[in-house]
Model the fold of this input.
Amino acid sequence: MSKILVIAEHLNGELNAGLSKVMTCATAIGGEVDVAVLADSAADIAAAAATVEGVSRVLTVERADNAAPLAAVLAPQIAKLAEGYSHVLIAGTTFGKDVLPRAAALLGVQQVSDIMAVHSATSFDRPIYAGNAIVTVDVPAEPLICATVRLASFKAAGEQAAAPIEAASVDAELPSHTRFVGLEAAKGDRPDLQSAGKVVSGGRALGSSENFEVIFKFADKIGAGVGASRAAVDSGYVPNDMQVGQTGKIIAPDLYFAIGISGAIQHLAGIKDAGTIVAINKDEEAPIFEVADIGLVGDLFEVVPELTEKL
Done:
């Protein structure tokens, strides 16, 4: 039977909602599932993780070094903690993609990236060619399997009565060449882009960062997260942590608005699992209309404010 270790992602004392989707993947593999919380103060995070359906136990590794999410510091601890497990899973977020490859290298195994379906404990589907093809990979069970989970491909797990929480001690040698300087991250009251049920994204057609306010107002009116195309990010309209697409964030909201976005393959790779796609573009030949469930040809500077006003 599989014994799975899931690494919990957290920031500023709050558990990342992606854990519930990783748990759905872990449950599909089968077996006992432990969640590891590495932090300087893990109590609140562990309490939240313990109530996610499928969690058998939460392990906390508390030390001052874990105050900042540094891959160089966390990976050696994860590698030590992984001893005795058959699988190590983590969300395929920026954090997961940073941390797990280091841990896998320390464990001497190849990482499986972006699991999107589970066939067995050693057989998984993952996307290739920007999601245009799906490949089934069979992975050696020994010594263990390290994998990131494509959050857009799994539904969130439910809740359960709190699982037991235990303190764990990890004897890992931490690097001396890496130190935390600071963290710059966008802050706001809008839903997290990767877990939001509704997302509104803007493209190069907005023309400037000031004009992007049209997108923000509409998103706030419907309680949506805000994203952007790579073209909008490259043009400097918004920060790169808002980028949706192959080289940005892969998302699967129930409702997705693509406003002023042409529909390049790079962008479509990030929204292919969205429930309903609504496209607004003045170019009726834009490729985005080929994948949109609802399309509206018109000037976004006229259409979006009108929508915002009528809602």
